[in-house]
Task: inverse folding
């Protein structure tokens, strides 16, 4: 195995503890359109995706609407406002030990990229609430609207690699709490892909994407990276 030079971490559910707030918000705006879906439906079909795509895929998989686009358009318009309100009102934190873990990565000269299915504005708001800063806690942040194609396409990882001057995807580790994170890492050719059980999906759901490791929380990467 090649030495890991760069890690790419998903945000909500992986590095950021927001108790599935984003997916609860997705569920609310969909059900406000007259449906009766469950959080499990949203997590199964929407986890890790750019949020308009998540809403579209959940509607496609879980309803019999012949044309989901108008419904998805209405739900997504309400989603952006609802999520901003929720993030203003709710307590958001990083998972326990995350700041110290980031410090250990930086001490070992491992670059840290955060990537997310959020748009850039939402991602920056989340970063601000955590009091994280590029250059101090992490090296770069890539949001869904920074690239043409979101997960499971490799565009966000390749964009981060270009920003941080990493040419060999085999030296990159991708970790996230949904199967689509793992698919993204595999499609980018990452040397290691890791599923994390701290967020959206179950061990069974993550296993379907065949990650190299499944861990309970991100700080367990210590044993993989430093031993």
Result:
């Amino acid at each position: 195995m090649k030495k890991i030079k760069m890690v790419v971490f998903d945000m909500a559910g992986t590095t950021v503890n927001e108790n599935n707030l984003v997916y609860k918000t997705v569920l609310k705006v969909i059900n406000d359109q007259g449906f009766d879906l469950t959080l499990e439906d949203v997590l199964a079909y929407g986890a890790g995706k750019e949020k308009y795509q998540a809403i579209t895929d959940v509607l496609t998989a879980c309803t019999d609407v012949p044309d989901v686009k108008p419904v998805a358009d209405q739900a997504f318009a309400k989603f952006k406002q609802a999520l901003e309100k929720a993030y203003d009102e709710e307590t958001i934190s990083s998972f326990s030990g995350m700041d110290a873990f980031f410090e250990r990565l930086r001490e070992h000269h491992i670059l840290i990229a955060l990537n997310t299915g959020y748009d850039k504005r939402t991602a920056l708001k989340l970063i601000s609430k955590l009091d994280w800063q590029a250059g101090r806690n992490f090296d770069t942040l890539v949001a869904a609207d920074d690239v043409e194609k979101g997960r499971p396409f490799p565009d966000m990882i390749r964009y981060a690699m270009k920003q941080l001057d990493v040419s060999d995807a085999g030296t990159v580790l991708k970790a996230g709490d949904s199967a689509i994170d793992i698919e993204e890492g595999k499609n980018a050719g990452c040397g290691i892909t890791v599923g994390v059980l701290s967020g959206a999906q179950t061990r069974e759901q993550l296993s379907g994407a065949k990650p190299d490791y499944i861990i309970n929380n991100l700080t367990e990467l210590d044993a993989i990276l430093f031993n």
Summary: Strands lie at 6-10, 16-17, 93-94, 111-115, 140-142, 172-176, 192-196, 213-215. The mean pLDDT is 93. The CA atoms of residues 33 and 60 lie 14 Å apart. Residues 21-89 form one domain.
